TrEMBL record:
Membrane topology category: Multi-pass membrane protein
Name of this chain's protein: MFS transporter
Organism: Phenylobacterium montanum
Signal peptide segment: none
A cellular-component GO term for this protein: endomembrane system
Localization, UniProt: Endomembrane system
SUPFAM superfamilies: MFS general substrate transporter
Keywords carried by this UniProt record: Membrane, Transmembrane, Transmembrane helix, Transport
Principal subcellular localization: membrane
């Protein structure tokens, strides 16, 4: 993060005072949430579920797609109303704690997901329930920021939450790799001779252990919240009255969206390309495990390195946005993401760039046992590219929304911005599942993601930026005032 130079003679803490304990403890909750998302949903457990527990990688990817479709649809139906209702409820810290704690026993149950234990239906049901509760807890967590942190702390607390989340996930991945996956597989002086806690890699216990591990991390992440985070003030409204007011606010948002021409076009485009990028994140581990035959070692190494590259994406946006402008920067990063997805579609054990590949004829990139084929290197490069471009696109889209929102209505538009990211969370999984089963190919299952990204980019292109308007309201709004609804 770039820092503005301090005034001469002024102490640093006057310009950047330390975050309050309330703000830091609010941010620390993300360490439990991100650990679950990255270890279980992306890189370790779900790939194990799709490629080992199901045994057929193509069928496994389709099952994961159906799982994401159901959870996304349920969250899309509930999250908008919760988002507009929550500000009328008053105290909400207890809601966040209980919604988050629901994932603890369910996550611990994933240890039993094995042949002869929890079957695929029960395991998928657990993951779906946790997925829905995570989305709802995210809404509550976001709404608590304005109460947990001072106004001058909002941006830093929000950024710290992402840093802590990714940092905690990377630390846990390193621990799992060092303590449970590498022992017995490699012989290095800093690696234990056998997996700690007596875990058996042949029974896929390291993958299953991520469930209880993330459950413990979730509990730890909530302790500072309960002790130090400021809660919202109590409300005099009953639950019924709060829901009624939330419905009124939701209608107000839709009314505002009808009148905001350019912002409406942008939010619809974002809804499409965000769904595509969410799909890529969700299926990365499943795709690599099934198409390239990667096990937990490769997935963990890729996850650790990929998280580092994803962190670069925010810096890229900070450089591109002032140079190209937010819209051009966003189109550039979406195009880069699209090319990387196409590159991943063209990868397989026996082909690269859609052309046949034979290590005996075409050679290997290096003699090491891991990542020793050119298709794997191409996939890694594309995955790193997706991480950089997608995170950059997320940052640029947020800045572009700030440009399009007229003064005095920024809060309302960012409420719509947040809701648009959830409205079609079911679409990408549905299309991936249909394409995977229809073509019986994991690579073809990725084609709808490329299509959604292309459609979203094409819909973004005609959106006019504020500098392209002459004598017009930047967001295409009428001058008449409108009540600004409460947002998530």
């Amino acid at each position: 993060m770039q820092r503005a130079p301090a005034d001469l003679g002024a102490p640093a803490d006057r310009r950047h005072p330390p975050l309050s304990k309330s703000a830091v403890s609010w941010a620390f909750v993300e360490s439990g949430r991100s650990s679950y998302t990255i270890l279980i949903a992306i890189y370790i457990f779900v790939p194990y579920l799709a490629s080992v527990l199901v045994s057929d990688p193509v069928k496994g990817q389709a099952i994961i797609a159906n799982l994401g479709q159901g959870a996304g649809l349920a969250a899309a139906l509930m999250a908008p109303l919760l988002g507009t209702t929550i500000d009328h409820v008053g105290r909400r810290k207890h809601l966040l704690v209980w919604a988050s704690l629901l994932s603890v026993p369910l996550g611990a149950l994933l240890w039993l997901a094995r042949p002869g234990g929890l079957d695929i239906t029960a395991t998928a049901t657990i993951l779906a329930i946790v997925g829905v509760t995570f989305t709802l807890a995210e809404v509550v967590h976001n709404s608590l920021l304005v109460h947990a942190a001072r106004r001058d702390e909002w941006a830093r607390a929000s950024g710290l939450s992402l840093t802590l989340g990714n940092g905690a996930a990377v630390v846990l991945m390193i621990i799992v790799l060092w303590a449970f996956v590498l022992p017995g597989a490699v012989h290095l002086p800093f690696v234990p001779d056998k997996p700690l806690l007596g875990l058996n890699a042949a029974r896929h216990e390291p993958e299953r252990f991520t469930g209880p591990l993330c459950a413990v991390m979730m509990v730890l992440s909530l302790i500072p919240l309960m002790l130090f985070t400021r809660d919202a003030p109590a409300s005099s409204l009953t639950t019924r009255q709060a829901i009624r007011q939330g419905l009124a606010d939701l209608r107000g948002m839709l009314t505002l969206l009808k009148e905001a021409r350019e912002a409406r076009k942008f939010l619809i485009a974002r809804m499409i390309f965000m769904d595509a990028m969410g799909g890529v994140f969700a299926f990365t581990g499943v795709f690599a495990a099934g198409v390239l035959g990667w096990g937990p070692t490769q997935l963990l190494v890729e996850g650790i390195a990929g998280s580092v590259f994803a962190a670069v994406g925010g810096l890229v946006a900070g450089w591109l946005d002032p140079w190209l402008g937010c819209k051009r920067s966003l189109l550039f990063t979406l195009s880069g993401c699209l090319l990387c997805i196409i590159g991943e579609i063209g990868v397989g054990k026996d082909h690269i760039f859609f052309m046949a590949y034979d290590p005996a004829l075409n050679g290997r990139p290096w003699p090491l046992p891991l990542f020793n084929t050119w298709p794997e290197w191409l996939f890694i490069a594309c995955d790193f590219g997706v991480g950089v471009f997608s995170v950059s696109a997320l940052a640029s889209s947020r800045t572009f929304m700030a440009e399009l929102a007229p003064p005095g209505r920024t809060t309302a538009f960012f409420g719509l911005f947040a809701l648009s990211g959830r409205a079609t969370a079911w679409l990408a999984p549905m299309l991936v599942g249909a394409a995977t089963l229809g073509f019986h190919s994991q690579q073809m299952g990725y084609v709808p993601l490329a299509g959604l990204l292309l459609i979203g980019s094409l819909m973004l292109a005609p959106v006019r930026t504020p500098t392209e308007h002459v004598g017009a309201d930047p967001a295409g709004l009428e001058a008449a005032p409108i009540r600004e609804p409460t947002t998530v």
